[in-house]
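We give the entry.
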Amino acid sequence: MPKSQSELVFENDVIRSLEDNGWTYRKDFSFTTEETLLDHWREILYQRNIDRLKDQPLTNDEFEQVKSQIFAIKSPLEAARFLATGQVMISRTLNGTKSDIILECFWPHDVAGGKNCYEVVNQITRKKNRATGRDHRFDVTLLISGIPVIHLELKREGVSLSNAYWQIRDYMANGDFGGFYSLVQVFGILNGDESRYFARPTDYRSFNPAFCFSWADIENKKIDESSQFIKHALRVPMGHKLMSRYIIADKPKGILKVLRSYQIYAVEKILARLNQAQFNGSEQDFLGGYIWHTTGFR
C-alpha cells in the first residue's frame, strides 16, 4: 500500500532530525534491498580490517562465510552476544596455506568515534513472504558500522502508535526480521506526537506493550514529540549506548531488556562519579564501598 503524503513528509522529517543528531543519511542505499546493505557492510568490513586482510578484499566465498554466521543467529540474545563480541571469522587460503582470520565488525565500547560510523537508511524492501504474498518496505533503519541495530516504524499524525507496535509484531511473525535484520536490538515507534521504544522481543509471541517505554528527561518529564525523542534517545552517542551498553541479555529468561531513561541517567551519574575518583591509595578523602541501585527494573 503506498504511503500517504503526510506519512512521507513525516518520514523525511524523522530523517532530518536524525541527521541533526549525528546520523548520516545514505540516500544511495535507501529504497534498495537487504543485499545492497550487505554489500555496503562488506566494504566496511574490508576497510576496517584492511591490515588483517593484507589489502586483499573479501572474496565472494569469504563473504558467504561471514553471512552464514549472521544468518545462523536465531534469537535476540544470540544477536546481542555477537554484537558484544564484534567479530567474525573467515578461513582464507593464500599461496596454498589456509589460515583463519578474525575480522572486527562492531565496536560496542567505541562510542561516537573511532571505527564506528552512524548511518540511516529508509524504505528497504523486504521480499514477499507466504503470509502477505507481496513485497513491503521497512520505514527507517539505523546502521552502526553498516549493521542494522535500531529499526523505526512510523505512523502519520493521528494514527495510534499501537498500529506501529503490532505491525512490527506482524513483521516478526512473517520472518521479516531474519537475515541481516536479525541483528536489530531496539525498536522505536513514532507518530509525531508520541514516541516509544522497546527491546526486541524473543519472537512474535513475546510482544508485551507493558515493556514499550516512553523517554523522559533528567527531571522525569516525558518526551513524546518525535524530534525531541530523537534528540534525547537516539542521538549519537545515546542511540549507540541504548542498543549496546543499556541492553541487558537476560540469559535465564531468554530475553533482551532495555533500560528506561531514568535508569540510564542513574547509571551515567554513577559512571561519571567513578570517573572523577582518584583511586591511588594515598588519600583517605575518597570513600569506597558498595552501590545499591534500586530502580524497580525487572
Notes: Residues 201 and 208 are 8 Å apart (CA to CA).
